Amino acid sequence: MDTYDDGTEDGAIGSSSSEKRQRSADGEERSDEDDGETAAKKKLRLSKEQSAVLEESFREHNTLNPKQKLVLAKKLNLKPRQVEVWFQNRRARTKLKQTEVDCELLKKCCKNLTEENRRLQRELVELRSLKRSPHLFMQVPATTLTLCPTCETARQRRPQIRS
DNA sequence: GATAGGTGGCCAGTTACATCA
DNA sequence: AGTGATGTAACTGGCCACCTA
């Protein structure tokens, strides 16, 4: 296993679990990696350059190993924890987007199936009415009576019923 | 070898804040 | 200037995998 005792400035590496355990253990809320500069640092927006580099890195690999995280953090002058959080949030956004895309796809699919179902229902009604008047049924061109592969197979397997 | 405890990573959900219309 | 909507940085708790004593 990798160890993170490599002197990260604020010990933010691997903070997600150890820090949360620490927080829950002593009841400390929102310590925000208290390293002296208390309260001064609220949430800050990442710069466009930082975001761009993170995006580029995310395109290459959407997860980071500890080493990559450190390198990236150093490069961007961020804390490793910030990089880690950014990747987590980015993965969540990607997943959400993909879910939306999938949802749209399923809606389209549903619409198509509904239309197809209506069409088949109409066809069924038509065929039933034809069946009720056999003289018309026999006049129906063969092309009108083509069956889908499943039905065709079933029809062929069906034992011939003699009247 | 089985087991408990520690650690770190990821995820889903939430909160807090910045920005914009 | 005030405000609601939206985006996102950061947090929280839970779960899992791995390591070690």
The H-and-E topology, N to C, reads as HHHHHH
Q: How many helices?
A: 6
> What structural class do you assign from the helix and strand content?
mainly alpha
Share of residues in strands: under 5%
Helicity range: 55-70%
Q: If you had to describe this structure to a student in words, what would you say it looks like?
A:
- It is a single chain.
- This protein has 163 residues and is an all-alpha fold.
- The protein has 6 helices and no strands.
- The protein has helices at 15-26, 48-60, 66-76, 80-132, 134-139, 149-157.
- Helix 3 (66-76) packs across helix 4.
- The longest helix has 53 residues, at 80-132.
- It is rod-shaped.
Question: Can you give keywords for this protein?
Answer:
163 residues, mainly alpha, single chain, DNA-binding, 0% strand, disordered N terminus, 6 helices
Report a brief summary of the structure:
Helix content is 64%, strand content 0%. The protein is built from 6 helices and no strands.
